[in-house]
Amino acid sequence: MSGRTASQVIRCKAAVAWEAGKPLVIEEVEVAPPQAMEVRVRILFTALCHSDVYFWEAKGQTPLFPRIFGHEAAGIVESVGEGVTDLKPGDHVLPLFTGECKECSHCKSEESNLCTLLRVNTDRGVMLNDGKSRFSIRGQPIHHFLGTSTFSEYTVIHAGCVAKINPNAPLDKVCVISCGVSTGLGATLNVAKPKKGSTVAIFGLGAIGLAAAEGARIAGASRIIGVDRNPMRFLEAKKFGVTEFVNPKDYEKPVQQVIAEMTDGGVDRSVECTGSVDAMISAFECVHDGWGVAVIVGLPSKDDIFKTHPMNLLHERTLKGTFFGNFKPRSGIPTVVERYMNKELEVEKFITHEVPFSEINKSFELMLKGEGIRCLIRMDA
Ligand SMILES: NC(=O)c1ccc[n+]([C@@H]2O[C@H](COP(=O)([O-])OP(=O)(O)OC[C@H]3O[C@@H](n4cnc5c(N)ncnc54)[C@H](O)[C@@H]3O)[C@@H](O)[C@H]2O)c1
Ligand SMILES: [Zn+2]
Ligand SMILES: [Zn+2]
C-alpha cells in the first residue's frame, strides 16, 4: 500500500480556510512526503471541535491563513519518514494536537503531559523539522493547524503526535477520542478525581463537557449538575447521566450562588468546558469550601483575566487547569480506545450528525448554531 506513494508527493482533496470566518473551500492540494520523524496519514474520518472554529474565526488570536484546520480524526499510516521506528504503513492511528517525545523532562515526569518539544502550539503553521509546510497549492504553501490538519485526505504529522491504536477499533467511532472525548473524560477522571457518591457540576454541555459528565458517571458521582446557556443541550445531556440542569439565563443571581444553594454550600468537583471566562470563575466559586476542586478546560480569549477574591482559595478550594485531560498523548490515548472496546465508555452517543467531506461547511454551521454534539466528516464520501 505504501510502496507506490511513499516518498512521492500526493495530490488529494483538502478543505482550505483562505480567510478567517469564511467557508472552507475544497481544493486539490499537494502533500509532500514525510521528513525525519514524520508520518503521512490517510485520514478516513474527522470531526469538528470547537477549537477549530475558534481559530478559524480568529477573533481573539493571531490569524494564520490560508490554513488547513482539523485535529479530531482517525486514519491509517500511509508512509513514514526517516527515523520513525514505532509506526509503519497500515497502522491505525489517531492524530494528536499535542505530542509526547518520551524524552523531555515533562514526558519523563509522571505528573505532566506538556511535552517540551511537541506541546500544543496554536500559532505554529509549519512542521518542526524544517520550519516549512508540507501542504501547497500550485507552489503556494498552506499552513498547518495544531500539527494535525486533518481536513485533508492525507496529512503529515510528527510521529510523536500520533497514537497507534487497536486495529479492531472502528475508526468512524474512535475518531472522537482523539480530542473531545479524551479531554473531557480525562479532566474528570485524571484531574478533578471525584469520589464515589460526590456531586459534580459540569459547565458547558458540548462534546467536552458531556465527556466530562461521562467521566463523573464512571467515577460513581451521585449528582451531575449540567450548566449551559443553550437549553437545547439539556435534552442530549440526559443520555450522559446528567441528573440536574441549570441555565444561568433563568436566574437573576450568579450561577455559583444558585449551585451553592442546590448543594448545601457547593459541589465537590466542577469542570468548566465552555471557553467563557465568566463560566470559569463561576465554576471555581461554586465548589464547596474545605475540599472543592474546580478544573478549567475551555480555551479563553486572548485578553481574558480570571478574577476571584483570594479568600475563595484560602477557604481550601483548589483551582486546576488541564490540557488534553492530562493524558500522556501517545501512551494514554490508546487506553481510552480500550475503555471503549471494553464497553466501559460509550462514544456513539457523541456523534449526532454526519456529513460527506464535500459538505464540511455544514458541520461549522451546526456548531455555530449549537446543534448536536459532534458532526462526523467522512473523507471518502
Ligand atoms: N484544554 C483542552 O485540552 C481543550 C481541548 C479541546 C477543546 N478545548 C476547549 O473546550 C471548550 C469546549 O469545547 P466543545 O467542543 O465542547 O465546545 P461546544 O461549543 O460544543 O460546547 C460549549 C458549550 O458551552 C456553552 N456555554 C458557552 N458559554 C457559556 C456560559 N457562560 N455558561 C454556560 N455555558 C456556556 C455553550 O452553549 C455550549 O453548549 C472550548 O473552549 C474548546 O476550545 C479545550
Ligand atoms: Zn479539539
Ligand atoms: Zn517530551
From TrEMBL:
<keyword id="KW-0520">NAD</keyword>
<keyword id="KW-0963">Cytoplasm</keyword>
<dbReference type="GO" id="GO:0008270">
    <property type="term" value="F:zinc ion binding"/>
</dbReference>
<dbReference type="Pfam" id="PF00107">
    <property type="entry name" value="ADH_zinc_N"/>
</dbReference>
<feature type="domain" description="Alcohol dehydrogenase-like N-terminal">
    <location>
        <begin position="37"/>
        <end position="165"/>
    </location>
</feature>
<keyword id="KW-0862">Zinc</keyword>
<comment type="similarity">
    <text>Belongs to the zinc-containing alcohol dehydrogenase family.</text>
</comment>
<dbReference type="GO" id="GO:0046294">
    <property type="term" value="P:formaldehyde catabolic process"/>
</dbReference>
<keyword id="KW-0560">Oxidoreductase</keyword>
<dbReference type="GO" id="GO:0051903">
    <property type="term" value="F:S-(hydroxymethyl)glutathione dehydrogenase [NAD(P)+] activity"/>
</dbReference>
<keyword id="KW-0479">Metal-binding</keyword>
<dbReference type="GO" id="GO:0004022">
    <property type="term" value="F:alcohol dehydrogenase (NAD+) activity"/>
</dbReference>
<dbReference type="InterPro" id="IPR013154">
    <property type="entry name" value="ADH-like_N"/>
</dbReference>
<comment type="subunit">
    <text>Homodimer.</text>
</comment>
<dbReference type="InterPro" id="IPR013149">
    <property type="entry name" value="ADH-like_C"/>
</dbReference>
<dbReference type="InterPro" id="IPR036291">
    <property type="entry name" value="NAD(P)-bd_dom_sf"/>
</dbReference>
<dbReference type="GO" id="GO:0005829">
    <property type="term" value="C:cytosol"/>
</dbReference>
<dbReference type="InterPro" id="IPR002328">
    <property type="entry name" value="ADH_Zn_CS"/>
</dbReference>
<dbReference type="Pfam" id="PF08240">
    <property type="entry name" value="ADH_N"/>
</dbReference>
<feature type="domain" description="Alcohol dehydrogenase-like C-terminal">
    <location>
        <begin position="207"/>
        <end position="337"/>
    </location>
</feature>
<dbReference type="InterPro" id="IPR011032">
    <property type="entry name" value="GroES-like_sf"/>
</dbReference>
<protein>
    <recommendedName>
        <fullName>Alcohol dehydrogenase 1</fullName>
        <ecNumber>1.1.1.1</ecNumber>
    </recommendedName>
</protein>
